[in-house]
Backbone:
């Protein structure tokens, strides 16, 4: 495409299939103790990788 | 739902329900913006739907005419842009609808503890949400017996979860460091037999750090959070001891030494900004100038009447600081240097799954805080609030059903305001404690936090777009 650069395709729907294993870090245990921030957490589900 | 914004000449479109992110040339961006406005029904162009627009073989005349007359775009370029946007739409990468179920469990295993190893502190930070370290319930350290029961509790309540987390928190956890060490030793001694793996983290103000403590932290803690607010005058104006002496000079050399020996393990130098330092990008830069490359500086959480509280009238200034920081981060990227600002971290491709994105931090369900007396609270921010006491590990490993059910509802799917927000899958509905403290309801987002979170997400996605555009 000439006018569109897609950085990422549909990740959410894909992640619904194999997501929810809960092995990832709780967001407040990383650095934020006052401002819920989730999108920057790492996925630790081997089945998704 | 789309979110469109431009920053420094880069036009970005987030397709909310699919999670797709696109960078568009000007013609495609204006076309997309017009189609979105038309579909949202908030612009001069007649109301339509993405389906009706993209069922056309060429750009609808009403839209094309606006682009030609108001924006002086070339008609051929418009048709090319239309064709490309149509292709995205057909691939469910633009105006996507959620056509799948997000299955949330009926019961959550508890996998993470905020262990309040000490409700005492050797600093008296002016903005402390823990009321000087004791959470309003008296200064005390957690006895090892309580910490041991807490470890047994999380093992028993964690079901099949393998990775368990314990954050040693306070107050100041180094005031009870022997119990920290005994707790780690105890957890390690039993984790294999239960098929668990503990990750330990610690949050410290650094006053009691010495070589032995630092060596222990670097060996045992997968992450360490080091509290420093930035420039000396800023830090010392809010982070001082009982006698009023600032902490900066005592902690910075210790933090430098600890990080030097961290051997690649995670750490954050974490600061708080208040109404007093709305130019907080300078504090981030200062922390970087000290040699730290993993930094988080977050807005203070205070009652709105506190002079240090972040208020609505501060937002424009805060946004411009996030922009300033973003531009600085882009310059750092251009130089090929590494610098990580916690709130600008985003993994667009392999980040958290949608289940995590709708349920957020998991407070009160997967994540709980335990006080020195063994009381269980939904998280560290609710500690000491008697209405939110879930139980006590010394009495039982049960948690109060109705409270857990209340926190289970805390997903973006149950928050009407969030359901309409483009940022919902990035922020997950905000901090339950902030929501409660502001509105008396964990399901009603704290608007000022929302505004700042949306700005941070825009900056974070922009930096990804900037890197991608400049790779070409």
Residues:
């Amino acid at each position: 495409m000439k006018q569109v650069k897609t950085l990422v395709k549909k990740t959410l729907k894909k992640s619904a299939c194999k997501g929810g294993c809960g092995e990832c870090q709780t967001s407040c245990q990383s650095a934020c103790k006052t401002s819920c921030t989730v999108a920057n957490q790492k996925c630790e589900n081997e089945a998704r990788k | 739902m789309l979110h469109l914004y431009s920053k420094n000449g880069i036009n970005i479109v987030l397709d909310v329900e699919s999670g797709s992110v696109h960078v568009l040339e000007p013609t495609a961006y204006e076309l997309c913006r017009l189609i979105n406005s038309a579909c949202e029904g908030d612009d001069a162009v007649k109301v339509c739907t993405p389906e009706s627009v993209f069922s056309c073989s060429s750009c609808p005349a009403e839209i094309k005419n606006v682009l030609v007359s108001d924006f002086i775009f070339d008609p051929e370029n418009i048709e090319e842009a239309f064709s490309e946007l149509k292709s995205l739409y057909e691939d469910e990468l633009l105006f996507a609808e959620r056509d799948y179920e997000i299955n949330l469990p009926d019961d959550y295993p508890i996998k993470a503890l905020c262990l309040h190893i000490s409700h005492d502190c050797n600093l008296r930070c002016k903005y402390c949400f823990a009321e000087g370290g004791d959470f309003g319930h008296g200064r005390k350290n957690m006895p090892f017996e309580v910490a041991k029961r807490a470890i047994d509790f999380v093992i028993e309540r964690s079901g099949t979860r393998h990775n368990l987390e314990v954050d040693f928190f306070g107050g100041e956890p180094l005031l009870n460091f022997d119990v920290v060490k005994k707790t780690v030793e105890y957890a390690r001694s039993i984790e294999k037999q239960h098929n668990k793996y503990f990750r330990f983290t610690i949050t410290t103000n650094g006053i009691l750090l010495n070589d032995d403590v630092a060596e222990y932290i670097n060996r045992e803690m997968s992450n360490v959070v080091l509290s420093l607010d930035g420039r000396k005058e800023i830090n010392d104006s809010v982070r001082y001891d009982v006698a009023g002496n600032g902490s900066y000079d005592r902690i910075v050399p210790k933090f430098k030494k600890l990080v030097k020996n961290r051997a690649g393990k995670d750490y954050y130098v974490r600061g708080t900004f208040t109404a007093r330092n709305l130019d907080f990008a300078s504090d981030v830069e200062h922390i970087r100038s000290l040699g730290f490359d993993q930094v988080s500086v977050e807005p203070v959480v205070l009652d709105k009447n506190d002079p240090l509280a972040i208020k609505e009238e501060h937002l424009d200034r805060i946004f411009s600081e996030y922009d300033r920081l973003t531009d600085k981060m882009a310059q750092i990227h251009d130089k090929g240097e590494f610098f990580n600002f916690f709130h600008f971290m985003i993994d667009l491709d392999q980040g958290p799954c949608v289940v995590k994105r709708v349920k957020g931090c998991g407070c009160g369900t997967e994540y709980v805080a335990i006080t020195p007396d063994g009381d269980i609270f939904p998280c560290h921010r609710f500690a000491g609030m008697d209405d939110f006491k879930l139980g006590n590990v010394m009495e039982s490993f049960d948690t109060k059903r109705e409270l857990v059910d209340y926190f289970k509802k805390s997903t973006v799917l149950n928050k009407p305001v969030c359901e309409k927000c483009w940022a919902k899958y990035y922020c997950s509905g905000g901090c339950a404690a902030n929501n409660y403290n502001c509105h008396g309801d964990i399901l009603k987002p704290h608007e000022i936090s929302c505004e700042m979170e949306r700005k941070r997400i825009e900056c974070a996605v922009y930096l990804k777009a900037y890197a991608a555009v400049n790779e070409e």
The CA atoms of residues 136 and 357 of chain B lie 33 Å apart. The mean pLDDT of chain B is 94.
